[in-house]
Amino acid sequence: MSAPVKFYYDLLSQPSRAMLIFLKLAKIPFESLPVALRKAEHLSEEFREVNRFQKVPCINDNGFKLSESVAIVRYLANKHNISGNWYPKDVKKQALIDEYLEWQHNNTRISCALYFQLLWLKPLLTGKKPSPESVAEHEKRVEDTLDAIENIWLEKNSFLAGDEISVADIWGACEIEQLLLTPFDFRKGRPRLSAWMDRVRSSSNPHYDEAHKVLAKIAQKTSAKL
Ligand SMILES: N[C@@H](CCC(=O)N[C@@H](CS)C(=O)NCC(=O)O)C(=O)O
Known about the structure:
Elements: E1 5-9, H1 14-25, E2 30-34, H2 45-50, E3 58-61, E4 64-67, H3 69-79, H4 91-126, H5 132-153, H6 167-177, H7 191-204, H8 207-211, H9 213-225
Parallel strand pairs: 1-2
Antiparallel strand pairs: 1-3, 3-4
């Protein structure tokens, strides 16, 4: 029998949290291997052997190394023959989930991650505040993405790829949660998105809250300072 997949992650990384929630929901056995980005553990020579791109999340499945969370989730769902709502076998249902996962790269991921880096990470590392122009520019991208989720993705369905929760929702919600570390209120003026975030959380708990515990703790401290 092969050993459980080795899973490398950091709870402050959006796709790492999504992977962790999926592994638990799908009951895939794994070895938990945290990599502290804040300590630059991902930049070590040892970690380069695990992932040549030196990013998390990534896996080592008995010698088979893979990065990119979307590729990993597809591989593990296929390998473990995961059926049901998270990543269904039905080709059309699966294609609708993939449609969101592909859309996310240039929308939810890029806009929320860059905004988080500008407002939280860079000031922490450099001690400098971002310029109002660059805040406005990045905020506009976040607004556009969240508006598309509110008005297009959630227009007719209760979840991103239909009326059942799937990995698309887990990936999307984990990116948006990162905004908790910024002053941006993603719920304000977006009732569908807000209710959807609540549905994603309640449908994937306790794993959702466990994956977000570090983020929630830092967010609490951050908001105390704002
Ligand atoms: N598209 C990749 C994103 C991977 C990624 O950018 N990971 C970040 C954390 S969220 C990272 O490891 N950053 C460290 C670095 O770039 O130095 C995925 O979905 O897995």
